[in-house]
Specification:
Elements (H helix, E strand, L loop, with lengths): L6 H12 L3 H8 L3 H8 L7 H10 L4 H6 L3 H13 L10 H7 L1 H30 L1 H24 L7 H33 L8 H12 L14 H13 L7 H20 L2 H10 L4 H8 L3 H10 L10 E6 L4 E5 L17 H6 L6 E7 L5 E11 L11 E9 L13 E2 L27
Length: 446
């Protein structure tokens, strides 16, 4: 385990937090107080056994002393610094910043993430302005009314004699078109203001659902334990939960949410929470073994793994899914594995490899870029969404479960580690055959 430059500082902070004297800690681990003082001021390194002894006396994990700030936080600071290289930020001192000023570091990381979200939102809104049918219809209505008024005015001011009866007709037409223009302009303003009044407003129905699920960490205890309920009781429980979700403003969003909640109920009924967690522990969270035990499909097991609480015995996992077009429609993010909110994701994700091999499960170790690259175990599967038919082509869905790499569980995996990213615009890798657009970030210096 590589040691951080600030391991000594963290030892000192932990000792002071516990109210332990330096001499007492030194005596407990069998070194002099002077040598411990050098370690605490980062002038000497603590060896493997010594570090283990110090961690034991401080009642903490050695990893918390060597890694300190979350790797995801360091990665965010590194990316934030790479965004504006002309300012020459001291990227090599990002760990110092995170260790000494964790609050300010978290603020910088949060602002960096906010900027990324806003950039993606601007891109999505730009696409919306180009393709939104309601906006196009409103603009067409305004232009049509303006054109009609201009034509009528041109006739009335053309200089020729106009029969009084026709003149009254033209005046009536101009009055009616003026009203139509006023109504169309008012509707357009209301339509545009509706999105401006909400901070980071969702632009598609799925985003409204995602905002709610992210606040709940995707777990819905209200929908657990309904395996003995009637369809009407399930529908009533789902409608009651939907009524509590303030972010669901449109009927389309409510339909998407209702479908997701119904799927959640079915998964929870087939794999009850208490039994599922017990078998999850026995199988070390292996999706294949869980699928066999509960007689469920791999996608159903992956959803259940991602949506139930991890607890103390399991690591939190992420989940992403897409349809045959590659569009992401289900996202449960995981720290260190960024999922794009809008636009396309990395073409090298096993999720997309599974699309080309329906029915064939894939298990791959991937590495996300950053100052401290992080590795994840990704397990993906692609299956038809509905029963196969002769009169229609199959509609496939792919699912990918994401979990932090545990070397003890994956030592028998074959194949090289696959370098991946989030999306091309947010990936710093220089050499990538799958790149389709330039990155906003400079290349990773490491």
């Amino acid at each position: 385990m590589p040691q951080s430059r600030l391991t000594g500082s963290r030892i000192r902070e932990r000792r002071l937090f516990l109210g332990q004297k330096q001499s007492a800690l030194a005596a407990a681990v069998g070194i002099s107080a002077a040598y411990l003082n050098l370690i605490e001021h980062n002038r000497r390194r603590a060896g493997g056994k010594l570090l283990q002894d110090i961690a034991r006396e401080l009642n903490t994990d050695p990893r918390s002393l060597t890694e300190g700030a979350e790797v995801a936080l360091l990665g965010a600071l590194q990316e934030a610094g790479q965004r504006m290289p002309e300012l020459a930020p001291e990227l090599h001192r990002s760990e110092d910043l995170a260790g000494r000023f964790p609050g300010w570091s978290a603020l910088v990381a949060a602002q960096h993430q906010r900027i990324r979200d806003l950039e993606q939102l601007v891109e999505a809104l730009s696409d919306r302005l180009t393709h939104d049918p309601e906006l196009a219809a409103s603009l067409h209505e305004v232009i049509s009314a303006v054109t009609a008024i201009r034509s009528t005015v041109g006739i009335l001011t053309g200089g020729g004699d106009i029969d009084p009866e026709w003149k009254l007709r033209f005046m009536g037409n101009m009055r009616d078109e003026g009203r139509r223009l006023s109504n169309a302009a008012q509707g357009l303003v209301q339509y545009l203001d509706a999105g401006a009044d909400r901070d980071m407003a969702p632009v598609v129905p799925g985003e409204e659902l995602s905002a709610f699920l992210d606040r709940r960490d995707h777990h819905l205890p209200e929908l657990e334990g309904l395996d003995g309920a009637t369809p009407d009781q399930v529908a009533a429980r789902i409608d009651a939960l939907i009524a509590q979700v303030d972010s669901l403003q449109t009927s389309s969003a409510k339909d998407v949410t209702r479908h997701h909640f119904q799927q959640y109920v079915e998964d929870a009924a087939a794999m009850p929470l208490s039994v599922f967690q017990k078998v999850r522990t026995e199988t070390a969270g292996d999706p294949s073994q869980l699928a066999v035990h509960f007689h469920q499909s791999l996608p159903a097991v992956m959803r259940r793994l991602a949506f139930v609480p991890a607890g103390d015995d399991h690591q939190a996992v992420g989940l992403v899914s897409c349809d045959g077009s590659g569009a992401l429609f289900l996202r449960k993010p995981l720290p260190g594995f960024s999922l794009p909110r809008f636009g396309a994701a990395c073409s090298y994700w096993p999720l997309y490899q599974a699309l080309s091999r329906p029915g064939h499960p894939l298990r791959t170790v991937v590495e996300m870029p950053g100052p401290t690259p992080r590795r994840f175990l990704c397990q993906a599967i692609c299956l038809p969404r509905e029963a196969l038919r002769f009169d229609l082509p199959p509609v496939h869905e792919a699912f990918m479960l994401i979990e932090p790499l545990d070397e003890t569980r994956t030592s028998n995996l074959e194949g090289p580690v696959l370098p991946v990213g989030s999306s091309c615009r947010l990936c710093p890798r220089r050499e990538c055959a799958a790149r389709r657009e330039a990155s906003l970030l400079s290349a990773d210096p490491t």
